[in-house]
Specification:
Shape: globular
Helix content: 25-40%
Number of strands: 2
Structural class: alpha+beta
Radius of gyration: 13 Å
Strand order of the largest sheet: 1-2
Strand content: 5-15%
């Protein structure tokens, strides 16, 4: 069984940030979305709190580029997370067990 991190390699970018995305699937990784009370200093959030992101979108998410603030892409990041979860659901990658 593959991890979600490994599974992300070669997948399409779910972020698609306008003016940022390079659409290069060969650079896609699982980019974690950090929020208070989900991850701490030096600690990543769970892999379900992440999206497939090309290298350019991943740099924007992690604030490695200064062309856009996280606040500017925040709404697009939520859209990406919803697209990601819808894809997982459609392909039965993640299931809820009660």
């Amino acid at each position: 069984m593959k991890s979600l991190r490994t599974f992300a390699n070669g997948k399409p970018c779910m972020c698609r940030f306008v003016g940022i995305c390079n659409w290069d699937e060969s650079t896609t990784v699982l980019a974690h979305i950090r929020r208070a009370n989900i991850a701490g200093m030096g600690q990543k959030p769970p892999d379900t709190c992440a999206v497939w992101a090309c290298s350019a979108c991943h740099d924007a998410i992690d604030s490695r580029t200064r062309n856009h603030s996280l606040g500017e892409i925040e709404g697009d990041l939520l859209d990406a997370l919803l697209r990601q979860h819808a894809w997982y659901d459609k392909h039965e990658i993640l299931t809820v067990v009660l």
